[in-house]
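User: quick one, sequence for these tokens?
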């Protein structure tokens, strides 16, 4: 199989799987926006940063384990590859169960910490409680999807997520409109969709279609440390968007109050889909780069990196043009309030300029992660996820006023890109 065909066999299903994962949030947003209203939409958006912890920690463990698994498979170390795989699954299960218990007991307190106003408090708490109730299946489907793909079955990884998404769409409609369950219904629909996705993905291991097998692992501290160390940049990358949303929620609430948060919540849903494309491509090239690194094939390693970087740049430009041309129409899918459309479109026009730099940064982070350059990956991830985005989101509107509310991410991503290029050249 040619390198190019191998590349697309992994990248296309990976992008598809990430898009489907993003759709869980977006479909909830569409049905909540139409069936519950603007306050329901804002409530869900306030909850996103906490719920994203599920994704971020799960993907840290999963991508750390998947990278080490791919390297071991490249070296023909099947037993060690299986151990990394099963340790990862075990700790994803323990983490998701723990967070489910916390969210069931402290959902109102968590909503308050996230900045929910009195108007939004009950809706935010409800969404957190019922969404994370299914945490084991959310985390399980994300983790299994990556390992199924890395074990040579990217198509099943994609179709597993499709099954979950179709189920979610139908149940969202059923629970919100005919049954009138509101925000609670949207959360439960997502959970049941992920449950079916898990069942579908498990068929790969039940039928023994690859090298990996689900079994009780031999848990050693050194293996756990390696998984967390290698996966930490992925955690920080995954937290970039929720941290950015959290910062913008605070600033937008100050300037626009609840209607501004409702408008930005729509943009947040759109951003989830857009960044799913960039992250999906990066996750698709991860096993290819890691396997090439494991076999010592430097030429293939660079080929997959360069092709991934080039394609992500093209995708970023295409996405930005689409948003400029069809942005207002896309926003009306969620809500057709004129003020909401104006605020949202103004945001995406400016914010969208950062897509190009973000797409490059995500590929560089994954490349350094996949080749065990963990310190470089960690530095880039922290810089774009916690440091520069937070600084510029707050600083620009304070210094220059409301007209610069959406400009902070352009500068933040550009500065991080310069650092990434410097690291790669060295």
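Assistant:
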């Amino acid at each position: 199989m040619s390198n190019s065909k191998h590349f697309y066999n992994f990248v296309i299903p990976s992008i598809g799987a990430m898009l489907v994962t993003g759709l869980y949030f977006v479909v909830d947003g569409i049905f909540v926006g139409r069936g519950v209203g603007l306050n329901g939409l804002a409530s869900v958006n306030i909850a996103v940063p906490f719920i994203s912890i599920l994704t971020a920690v799960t993907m840290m463990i999963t991508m750390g384990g998947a990278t080490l698994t791919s390297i071991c498979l490249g070296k023909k170390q099947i037993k060690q590859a299986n151990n990394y795989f099963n340790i990862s699954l075990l700790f994803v299960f323990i983490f998701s169960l723990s967070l489910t218990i916390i969210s069931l007991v402290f959902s109102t307190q968590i909503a308050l910490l996230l900045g929910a106003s009195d108007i939004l408090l009950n809706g935010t708490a409800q969404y957190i409680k019922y969404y994370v109730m299914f945490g084991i299946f959310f985390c399980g489907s994300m983790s299994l999807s990556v390992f199924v793909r890395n074990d040579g079955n990217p198509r099943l990884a994609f179709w597993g997520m499709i099954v979950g998404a179709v189920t979610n769409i139908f149940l969202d409609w059923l629970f919100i409109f005919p049954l009138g369950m509101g925000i609670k219904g949207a959360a439960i629909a997502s959970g049941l969709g992920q449950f079916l996705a898990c069942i579908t993905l498990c068929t790969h291991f039940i039928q023994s279609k690859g090298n990996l097998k689900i079994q009780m692992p031999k848990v050693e501290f050194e293996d756990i440390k390696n998984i967390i160390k290698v996966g930490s940049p992925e955690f920080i990358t995954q937290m970039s968007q929720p941290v950015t949303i959290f910062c913008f929620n605070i600033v937008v609430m100050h300037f626009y109050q609840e209607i501004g948060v409702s408008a930005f919540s729509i943009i947040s849903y759109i951003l989830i889909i857009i960044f799913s494309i960039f992250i999906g491509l990066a996750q698709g090239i991860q096993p290819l780069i890691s396997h090439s690194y494991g076999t010592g094939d430097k030429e293939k390693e660079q080929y997959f990196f360069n092709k991934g970087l080039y394609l992500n740049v093209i995708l970023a430009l295409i996405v930005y043009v689409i948003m400029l041309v069809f942005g207002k129409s896309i926003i009306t899918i969620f809500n057709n309030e004129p003020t909401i459309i104006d605020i949202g479109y103004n945001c995406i026009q400016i914010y969208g300029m950062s897509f190009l730099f973000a797409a490059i940064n995500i590929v560089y982070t994954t490349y350094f992660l996949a080749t065990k350059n963990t310190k470089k990956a960690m530095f880039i991830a922290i810089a774009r996820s916690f440091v520069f985005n937070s600084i510029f989101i707050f600083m620009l509107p304070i210094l220059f006023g409301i007209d610069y509310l959406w400009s902070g991410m352009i500068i933040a991503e550009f500065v991080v890109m310069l650092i990434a290029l410097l690291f790669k050249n060295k």
